[in-house]
Amino acid sequence: MKLAKREDFESFDFERNTRIPAMCFADNPMPDDTKHRLTVQIFTVKVAGLDGDLQWPLMCLGMVAVRDKLEYSRNVIFNHTRDNCQTLTQQDPYLVLVGPTRVVVYNGYVYFEAMLKVKGSTESEDTDLSLVFERFLCCEKINLCVSFG
């Protein structure tokens, strides 16, 4: 939290990815004024269903990120471009996660952001799959979580 309060983290930019490193104090002892915090661990992200004219299989591209109160910048967990799409099928609708970049700190809530598209023949023919920005609240007891939009 001290790192997030430094001057270069004060100005908020919605498009910025987190700049806090993944492993602070991995080689040296933690300073005396540090505290343990609750964290969120994301295991899977699933495309649960399709609307409109979309059909399986999908060539999926885009980004999924998590934001926390530590600095609110994007902590990317999925990121694929048109040149590097992931194929999703009805039997395997799970995104292959590449993150988070650093630990997701749970301090009352976190935000999930998803901007996913299905690849078309050309970039102009790409179709929106998911455009979401949702707050996730948890009661802090195992298996008793609920999300609020």
What do these coordinates show?
This protein is an all-beta fold and 149 residues long. It has one domain (37-48, 55-148). The chain has strands at residues 39-40, 58-67, 75-80, 86-88, 104-105, 110-118, 127-138, 145-148. The strands form 2 sheets. Strands 2, 3, 4, 6, 7 and 8 form a 6-stranded antiparallel beta sheet that branches. This is DUF6598 domain-containing protein. InterPro entries: DUF6598. Pfam families: DUF6598 (PF20241). Residues 39-131 form the DUF6598 domain.
Rounded Rg: 17 Å
Secondary-structure class: mainly beta
| Count of beta strands | 8
Low-confidence stretches: none
- Biggest sheet, in brief? 6 strands, antiparallel
Strand content: 25-35%
In one word, what is the shape?
elongated
Q: How much helical structure, as a percent, in the residues?
A: under 10%
Instruction: Determine the number of helices (DSSP H or I, runs of at least 4 residues).
Output: 0
SSE order, one letter for each helix or strand: EEEEEEEE
Mean pLDDT score: 81
Distance between the termini: 26 Å
Could you say how many structural domains there are in total? Answer: 1
